[in-house]
Amino acid sequence: MPRKPKRPCSYPGCPELTDGRYCERHEKEMTREYNRNNRTYKYLYNSTRWKRLRIKFLKENPLCAECGKKGIVRPAEVVDHIIPHKGNKELFWDESNLQALCKECHDRKTAKEDGRWGRKGEVYKY
User: Where are the domains of the chain?
Assistant: First the structure.
């Protein structure tokens, strides 16, 4: 089966041809840069304390809060921070700042807050 032709690396000024977006050298560099700048507070979500709190919260709140407002009964899958914590530990652990949401509602809310596809600060209306 024929393969797609290789294309130039997307790193500015790099002439290497690649099957992906970046050549091997720049793929590692861009991944490292992305991980360093993206969600520096990710470690909070990997903690045992968060995992236990999440399970406890979903047991106590098994239905999606947003769907419930519309009269729809849907199981919750995600524990969401009502006010984005952006690394603020006090806000992160505040149980009154948590709500149970289905994945669809959580993704919609997150897209509105963060700006879709990296366009931060834009307001979306439905």
Answer: 43-117
